[in-house]
Amino acid sequence: MKLSSLATGKSAIIIEFEKDDLHIKLMEMGCVPGETVKIEKIAPLGDPISIMVAGYNLSLRKTEADHIWVEEI
After folding, report:
1. Is 46 helix (H, G, I), strand (E, B) or coil?
2. What local confidence, expressed as pLDDT, does residue 50 receive?
3. TM spans, by residue (predicted)?
4. What does the pLDDT read at residue 38?
5. What confidence tens digit (pLDDT) does each residue in 1-48 have?
6. CA-CA distance, 23 to 8, in Å (whole number)?
7. Which of 19, 37, 38, 73, by CA, is between 20 and 30 Å from 9?
8. CB 36 within 8 A of CB 73
């Protein structure tokens, strides 16, 4: 499933990225395959999404979260 479709409060493990220039930026921010992410908050209109990854909060646009494939745990 895509990270953008995960519900608030749920956790998942990053599986892979859609291969484009964005995946390098995401990996530099701590979103690496095998890392656990948790959806902290979703803005009222669905964008942006606040996630907990690698010990810190990260805010992503929904379009960025669409590029991250995860497995819910």
Report:
1. coil
2. 92
3. none
4. 92
5. 898 888 888 999 999 888 777 777 877 777 888 889 999 998 888 789
6. 23
7. 19
8. yes
Cα 23 to chain centroid, rounded: 11
- pTM recorded for the entire structure: 0.78
Helix (H, G, I), strand (E, B) or coil at 67: coil
* Phi, psi at 69, each rounded to 5°: -95, 130
The pLDDT assigned to 32 comes to 83
Q: In angstroms, rounded to a whole number, what is the distance separating the alpha carbons of residues 40 and 50?
A: 5
- Taking the C-alpha atoms of residue 16 and residue 59, their distance in angstroms, rounded to an integer, is 19
- Token pair 């890392």 is at which residue? 35
Element (H, E) at 22: helix 22-28
